Amino acid sequence: MSAIKDRDAFASTLGAFAATVGSAVGLGNIWKFPYLTGSNGGAAFVLTYLLAVALVGIPIMVVEHVIGRRMRLNAVHAYERVVPGQKFWSAIGWAGLAAAILIMAFYTDVAGWVFAYVFKSFGAFFMGTKLTPETFGALAGGTWEPLFWQLAVLALTTGIIAAGVSKGIEKVTKTLMPLLFILLIICDIRALTLPGASAGVAYLFKPDLSKITATVLLSALGLAFFKLSLGMGTMTTYGSYLPNATRIVPNATRVALTDTAISLLAGLAIFPAVFAFGGTPAGGPGLLFNTIPLIFSQMPLGGLFTALFFCLTAIATIGAMVSLIEVPVAWAIERGHLKRPVAAALTGAVMFALGILATLSQNPLMANVKVFGKNFFDLFDFVSSNVLLPVGGLAIALVGGWLISKKDFTEEMNKGYATEPWHGRILFAFIKFLAPVLILLILLNSLGVIKLA
Ligand code: PHE
């Protein structure tokens, strides 16, 4: 359908899978998932999160991949043209561009801390010193140091984008994802063989069903959006690079399963250690930057495991950031006919400009600068995750389930099969009815229109 010649794309189904997993896996797995599990009652939250991924996450990912591959265009142009005569759906793409820039503004701040901690934790291990909450306070509340790291992660990730879809994104994620997995398994073995580790395992996997409230259900659903990079055009853009031979439903299911497995493995590296050393599952940035070094330092070779843990977190952030940058870059290339490296540099510059605000909002100098009662970091996080992604997800479900012809939709969804596969109809029903209804509930709840718990 796309009129664009020589459009870059993923070279193989395996490469497409690696890039998509690379987008999904990130701070959401290693920072948000454990922290939300900790503050929402452990296994009950995990269980509802799994349901959210299955009932909403996978169906929406399928829609985005179908629309992306059908249109073979960036997110703005894909939604502008996907429903004939209804150009205004391009708003989904515009909101996605805005979300990508807002998410990157705070994401690069946190990723910058992670990269700084890779160096700091190896340094501490070799020097025989310890990382303390003061170390983190000085970094996050500083000026030049966090900005330096933020710029460094942006330079790294825009560099990967500049190299291209198959030669940059696909190649890098294909190498990094297995490495991340191995490092995570090493940290898991260490944590699970600690005396008293079983309390942490039970915390993750023995649900107390009475803790499943409507609030838990809804926050699990919100996390599923952020985790699987949904509702903002990332998966539409990656869908536009999918080979025709890739079977969309099994691919999306595998991506979601892998991402969920990595979240659980991250939980299994963190909670057993937390419980073994008598800590509590604390929330927010504190869990990653304060609790981990503190808890890990109490175990044999803990300094080394702290360093490995920050390495794997740093690796995880790369594929996610790359996918966020690619959304505006794909648009700039196709709309402005810019060369890829130029589009990458310009996008990186815009992201850095807003990122400075997010980073310095933690600085004591800006302690009093608030918009709607939030500093810039929290504001960007709130507006993107709690407003733009769910609204985008709902609109995407409506376009996929109701507005484009069912024949076109299922044809694209079932490409690669000789006859309609058994899951085709089930999935379409989820897309048409279940997913939009569930998303509408989160949305109304987060707006305060309905109060479910
Ligand atoms: N899924 C990524 C993570 O878990 C974040 C992300 C959100 C990436 C939206 C792309 C789009 O870290």
Question: What does it look like?
Answer:
The chain is mostly helical and 453 residues long. The chain has a domain of 302 residues. The protein is 75% helix and 0% strand. It contains 18 helices and no strands. Helix 3 packs across helix 18. The longest helix is centred in the first third of the chain and has 38 residues. The protein is globular, with a radius of gyration of 21 Å. The mean pLDDT is 91.
Chain-wise SSE layout:
Layout: H1 13-24, H2 27-39, H3 43-71, H4 75-82, H5 90-127, H6 133-140, H7 144-162, H8 165-192, H9 198-205, H10 214-227, H11 234-239, H12 248-276, H13 285-296, H14 302-336, H15 340-360, H16 376-403, H17 406-413, H18 423-447
Helix pairs in contact: 1-8, 1-12, 1-14, 2-10, 2-12, 3-9, 3-10, 3-12, 3-16, 3-18, 4-5, 5-7, 5-14, 5-15, 5-16, 7-8, 7-14, 7-15, 8-12, 8-14, 9-12, 10-16, 10-18, 13-14, 14-15, 16-18
The structure holds phenylalanine.
Brief summary of the model shown:
The protein is 75% helix and 0% strand.
Q: What attributes does this structure have?
A:
binds phenylalanine; 18 helices; 0% strand; 453 residues; mainly alpha
The hetero compounds bound to this protein are: phenylalanine
Calculate the terminal CA-CA distance, rounded to whole Å: 46 Å
**Integer average pLDDT:** 91
Proportion in β-strands: under 5%
Shape designation? globular
